[in-house]
Amino acid sequence: MNKPKKSIELFCLTAALGIVFMLASCASYDYTAFKASNPHSILVMPPVNRDPDVNAPATFLATSVYPLAESGYYVIAPTVSDQMFKQNGVTVAEESWAIDYRRLNQIFGADTALYIEITRFGASFIVVTSKLVAEANAKLVDLRTGQQIWDGKVRVEASNTFGSSGGGLLGMVVTAAVNQAINTLSDKAHKNGRDANYMLLSAGRSNGLLYGPYHPKYKTD
Q: Among residues 186, 117, 193, 127, which one has the least CA distance to residue 158?
């Protein structure tokens, strides 16, 4: 029997919690606009959160710097940009997104701005499984022209499926509920979000960012 062709690329990481994975499109990405922009610096905008978990924006903002810096870009420190927004009365992420790109370029001096939209974050309970999900979309905009030069999306899951060692279905449900509480109260959700950010923002990945000017592989991809 012939095996069906795969239309997605599956990245798997074995973890104590379960299996962490990301589904990414194999379609070739058009980097024409990205290469023409040739960004050197990135301003990470306050993430917009569509999930009820209020901790999601802090996780994605705090863990965005390392993959971007490791990819060869100068990143405006989030503590500096966050303070600047607050001093100017901008306390809601959606309000910061409405600021004109030319104004952002003038204030921060960055070539580009990264906009992250969080669609899912944290623990959820499905029958006998407690699952951690981190899902987000992102776009990179040239602050000199207002043109979007890149976009991407990521979904990372970490889950446990429980077997019945006693107590039947009820025991499995109780165990899953307890695990969900642990996942929610611990830093496992934060780590899951961090993994999603690395998959989304690290250069050298399928359809990811290109290497920046401060990386040895600059202009080799």
A: 193
SS (H, E, C) 15-61: CCCCEEEEEEECCCCCCHHHHHHCCCEEEECCCEECCCCCCHHHHHH
- Sign of the C-alpha dihedral computed for residues 32, 37, 41 and 46 taken in this order: negative
Number of domains in the chain: 1
pLDDT band at 3 (very low <50, low <70, confident <90, very high): very low
Q: Which DSSP letter does residue 64 get?
A: S
Mean local confidence (pLDDT), 107-127: 86
Residue 177 has pLDDT above 80, yes or no: no
**Where in the sequence is the domain holding 59, given as residue range(s)?**
17-23+30-201
**18 contacts 182 by C-beta, under 8 angstroms:** no
